[in-house]
Amino acid sequence: MTITPTIRVQREDFDLQTEVDLLSKGKADIGAVVTFSGLCRDEGGRLAALELEHYPGMAEAEMTRIGELAVTRFGLLGLTAIHRYGKIAPGENIVLVVAAAPHRQAAFDGANLVMDFLKTAAPFWKKEHGKDGARGDWVAAKDADDAARDKWK
After folding, report:
1. Contact by Cβ (8 Å): 77, 108
2. DSSP H or E segment with residue 150
3. Closest by CA position to 20, among listed 122, 92, 111
4. CA-CA distances (angstroms) from residue 142 to 50, 82, 146?
5. What is the spatial distance between Cα 152 and Cα 109, in angstroms, rounded to a whole number?
6. What share of the chain is helix, strand, coil (3-state, %, to 5)?
7. Spatial distance between the Cα atoms of 111 and 121, rounded to a whole number of angstroms
8. Per-residue pLDDT of the chain (153 residues; tens, 9 = 90+)
């Protein structure tokens, strides 16, 4: 049976429990579900919002490729990846990964791989908006994110 990841890029928020239920309810072969929810930080109280942009069509295609890689590599029984765009306030959801597998390690590894590749390969860009009204620069990629991705090669 081929598992197709559920991939969404959306402006609106998501509900973690709803997404877990959609992926796992009634599936007796699942032994572990791992979730990762990435939130917007306030960066020490100076950030009013994080603006996220994406390349429509290409972002979904790359997320699908990443999801399929995780499903194949770790034998996942289900995978959901959701990434938001638009202005997101501190404390709000940005990204969700839900990985389901027969055993916990495969679910953990699948979720980790997806996040490590999302941070470096999917076409999303972030710009900070300060509480002082200043609009910051686009957030630069980090070498640590590349190193995290490279460990999966």
Report:
1. no
2. helix 143-150
3. 111
4. 17, 22, 7
5. 10
6. 35, 35, 35
7. 15
8. 789 999 999 999 999 999 999 999 999 999 999 999 999 999 999 999 999 999 999 999 999 999 999 999 999 999 999 999 999 999 999 999 999 999 999 999 999 999 999 999 999 999 999 999 877 778 877 888 888 888 888
Contact 82, 114 (CB under 8 A): no
Q: How many residues does the chain have?
A: 153
10 Å CB burial of residue 91 (0-12, 13-18, 19+) is exposed
Pairing relationship of beta strands 78-84 and 86-88 according to DSSP bridges: unpaired
Q: Measured between alpha carbons, how far is 77 from 31 in angstroms, rounded to an integer?
A: 10
Q: Global pTM?
A: 0.93
